[in-house]
Design goal:
This protein has 547 residues and is an alpha/beta fold. The chain has 23 helices and 7 strands. α16 packs across α17.
Length: 547
């Protein structure tokens, strides 16, 4: 028999008082858990009271969101043809939407593999050539005695071994003492020992585990202790802080490189920095010129991803500034002779860089998501929009496969996607104009948002190089979100600065398909040369500099 649950209303002040009393009575870990539970209760209560919150959004909050692909949202409909662009686009040129759709249907989906990787997937492995001990190319065949053996493609055997993330070597240096004069003679350590207790690879590994994969210092401390190579959390911080100070010139150069980009994506997510959350620190930061906005309480990690000359730069900034303010700081380094860059973001005003001029594009995926969230309530209308946008994304995939230049991609989208988007715009206006959708409803809000920002959402039809969405920046921010989910907070602003630096370097390496462990290590090993010419030590050109 189900028991009755009484719902009560509690004022925030009383709730905060209860939390403070609980913190005094409990240990630090239990008190943090109680505060997190109370914060979750307040957050869910605010969501329920919000008239725009849907049951679908609450389900996603509690159980996680599923894929937003059209077939996952609406379900597959066998026998239903895929939407095609208009006849004008189909008949315009060979690079039309009709060809795009046909090419998309011809592309066979890759068969699922067995989950194993071939030898070519291990560029960081040690490769060992094993030769036959008593047989060389050109020798007589030992089996038949008549033929001659010749070289063939070697067989490949992959063996993977385990090891601690950080290993240690203990050198026992022999000491001899003269019994007469007392002189002590100590063996010289080998060159492999190096001059420092923690070498460059140790700093790279700790930074990669902490800021690249979200492994907290305490968790790594426990793992290393279990493996017999203790590494205190405070020591880990000392190591990464020293590495960050040495790598600052390259980070500053990445900021300058990003400022010259043709396209800049930006967005932000929340973060906790205890120094900024305290009352004393808050009163100090109100007068700080860097933290604009009197009384501002929000704390954010902003992500900026810039595309320049085929390279991608990812930057992270944590503090009280919004994404637009951090983008403005980056654009201060932009060369005056360059034209305004394309800026891709969602439609929030805090993403804009103030007085600095950009060519604004808004994220098509954000507008699409508004219809995904209400598809279960308005399935037919939402499905029409999802299928129309599917044509655009399919055409963009074809443009990437063909390797079109920005100008060629623009013409292709104008021919293949333009008629579809024009028809969608007219259709959306009719939904409101003919009273098919209530303006104050969730559907009306989604349609109104799309129409209000239509020019920015369709910049890809007028500006060469304009992207469709801001997904690349949202993927970058997952680095910060992963760290937040595991470590919860930064203690100080300096700790956040160190995290931003490591995340920027690591994710920039990943975007440019560079091994971040090797890159961070090589920067430390050539610190003096890197500090003198940081522009020669970027992820995409440091190999040439090493040569």
């Amino acid at each position: 028999m189900r028991s009755t649950v009484e719902l009560i209303e509690v004022e925030s002040d009383r709730l905060e008082e209860v939390v403070r009393r609980a913190e005094q009575a409990l240990n630090e870990e239990d008190a943090a858990l109680v505060r997190a539970v109370f914060a979750s209760y307040a957050y869910v209560t605010d969501l329920v009271e919000d008239k725009n919150t849907t049951i679908r959004r609450l389900r996603q909050l509690f159980f996680g969101s599923r894929s937003e692909k059209t077939e996952d949202v609406a379900g597959s409909k066998p026998g239903k043809p895929e939407p095609e662009p208009s006849a004008d686009a189909r008949n315009a040129t060979p690079s039309s939407a009709n060809e795009a759709a046909s090419e998309g249907s011809k592309r066979a989906s890759p068969s699922k593999g067995h989950g194993r990787n071939g030898a070519n997937a291990f560029p960081g492995a040690t490769h060992v050539n094993v030769s036959l001990p008593a047989l060389r190319p050109g020798d007589a065949c030992p089996a038949c005695g008549q033929g001659t053996v010749y070289e063939k493609e070697p067989g490949v055997l992959v063996r993977i071994t385990g090891q601690p993330p950080l290993a240690a070597t203990v050198y026992h240096l022999q000491k001899l003492r003269c019994h007469l004069c007392g002189q002590i003679f100590t063996a010289k350590p080998p060159d492999a020992a190096g001059p420092r207790r923690y070498d460059a690879r140790a700093g790279s590994m700790i930074g990669l585990l902490k800021y690249g994969t979200g492994l907290p210092f305490n968790r790594l401390k426990g793992l290393q202790g279990d493996l017999g190579v203790p590494l205190p959390a405070s020591t880990q911080w000392d190591v990464v802080k020293a590495v960050a100070e040495n790598l600052t010139p390259v980070f500053d150069e990445l900021v300058r490189q990003a400022a010259q980009g043709e396209v800049l994506h930006n967005d932000d997510t929340t973060v906790k920095i205890l120094e900024l959350m305290g009352e004393r620190a808050r009163s100090e930061t109100l007068a700080d010129a860097e933290d604009s906005g009197s009384g501002r309480r929000g704390i954010y990690t902003s992500g900026v991803v810039a595309l320049r000359e085929g390279h991608r730069v990812a930057l992270f900034f944590s503090g009280r500034r919004h994404a637009g303010e951090n983008l403005a700081e980056v654009l201060q380094h932009r060369a005056a002779e360059l034209p305004p860059p394309i800026q891709m973001c969602d439609a929030l005003s805090r993403n804009l860089p103030g007085e600095l001029q950009t060519i604004l594009a808004n994220c098509l995926a954000h507008a699409r998501r508004r219809f995904v969230d209400i598809h279960d309530r308005f399935p037919e209308i939402c499905l029409h929009l999802l299928e129309s946008l599917a044509v655009v994304y399919r055409n963009d995939a074809v443009a990437r496969e063909r390797g079109l230049t920005p100008e060629e991609r623009l013409r292709f989208h104008q021919e293949a996607s333009g008629p579809t988007m024009e028809a969608l715009h007219d259709w959306l206006e009719r939904q409101l104009g003919e009273k098919r959708a209530e303006p104050n409803s969730a559907l009306g809000g989604a349609i109104g948002y799309t129409l209000k920002h239509w020019a920015e959402l369709t910049l890809f039809l007028r500006q060469a190089g304009a992207p469709l969405d801001n997904n690349i920046c949202e993927r970058a921010l997952k680095k910060a979100i992963l760290h937040r989910k595991n470590a919860w907070f930064y203690k100080t602003r300096n700790g956040a600065r160190v995290g931003d630096l490591f995340m920027s370097l690591i994710y920039t390496c990943e975007l440019n398909k560079v091994n971040p462990f090797d890159y961070l290590t090589e920067l430390q090993q050539h610190g003096d040369a890197m500090a003198e010419n940081p522009e020669r030590w970027l992820p995409w050109n440091h190999r040439d500099t090493l040569k």
